Predict the structure.
Amino acid sequence: MSVPRALELSEREIQQLVDAAMERIIKFTATIEQQPIDLSNQADPQFVRSLAEPIPRTPTDFDSLLNIIFDQTAPYAINAASPGFMGYVPGGGIFHTAIADLIANTLNRYVGVSNVAPALNQLEANVIRWLCEIVDYPTTARGFLTSGGSLANLSALITARHVRLGEDFSKGVIYISNQAHHCLEKAARLAGFPKKNFRVLDVDDNYRLRPEQVYEEIVKDRAQGLTPFMIAASAGTTNSGAVDPLPELADLAKREKLWFHIDGAYGGLFRMTERGKQTLQGLERADSVVLDPHKTLFLPYGTGALLVRNGDDLKATHSSHADYMPTLQEDEYMMDFCELSPELTRPFRGLRIWLPFKMHGAQVFKDYLDEKLDLAQHIQNKIEQHPQLELLAPAELSILAFALNNTYESLEQRNAATKRLMELINSKQRVMLTGTLLKGVYAIRIAVLAFRTHQERMDMLWEDLNWALEALTDEH
Ligand SMILES: Cc1ncc(COP(=O)(O)O)c(C=O)c1O
């Protein structure tokens, strides 16, 4: 039997692979702005099914594989890298992080244990410190990078559960608003809480939690012999961008001795801006905060973050020992991420933020975020002045929502017309918006967060919106 060598590439082979891939990557990035935004429903289902295949037994040349990726599959997608992508929660995916991934994956160093790659581990620890600085956390804070906001919220919930309830958590109760991201409900289920221990509370006219109602529920639950232990507030909901009243909720949590968690996956990093600091007052008082750099630092998908005010809480929850493990460090300033998080072996996520922050300085990210706040405000002003439109949720940060005026005979008719309006806007393929329900009213959301979105794309949105209003009238 011949000795296998095929996986060990020569320098020349590496160069050829990189060159061929880079040629396609450059072509792709050069046309991002002109590419249609949503071709996801245009992939022939039969073609999609034809991609299912048995394990390959023979080699295929690299160019053919690049064709499959770039020509035959990637185009049939929502183009979340587009400046016109304003649906769900955008980000865009800065290229620096793609390069960081290439480097990190090539190095393949083990950063979960400080002693194994101490200097690289310190770079990731720096990133955690920077994030702590952004939310004004004390030096006792620790944290770690996750694959995204959902897992960061899950880890927050498990940490709060462990620290506040110990092993018997069957009576623990969690409080969120009905606008909180659904990953929190999922996290509670995964963390072992039955549905009946999860309070999903109604919101005020601005879609925010009402602290007095949270308090009433806490009192009721205690009277039932339950153990309220966690309030999970939102610093920017996905639905409408609402920021819960953080200082009041922080006061309540402190008074009632509950763990105060903030899901800042969308909004938290706006704390880098002056306006964000104002809107997000109280963030620094949370016991734990989730941030999502793959949204609000524009990284490609794959990076969330959990920060915990008292780092010892993270360690108490995650620390675990085995004889075969390398020696863990004693220096309290250094971080063994395997001691603070659920993962042992994991990618070197720190470089994904470290590289672009070092290349540009944090100020550039602040400037981009400021621009998004301006753009959201600008389009909001126009919507407010438009005689056919009603602003349903103002932009506290960079997400807003609107609907057609309430001139219809029924809610169903109004909702259907607003939904149709959105479809018409999207049909132009220059912007992509997504909808939701706000207190039963169908709302078109505008989420301005992609780093490539600038004023000219907002002008296209405004043009397409006005065109769609006319087209809608013609349809009736
Ligand atoms: C407010 C909020 N929380 C949590 C999440 C979940 O984060 P991820 O999709 O990174 O898992 C999102 C995603 O959009 C979000 O907007």
Observations:
- DSSP finds 17 helices and eleven strands in the chain.
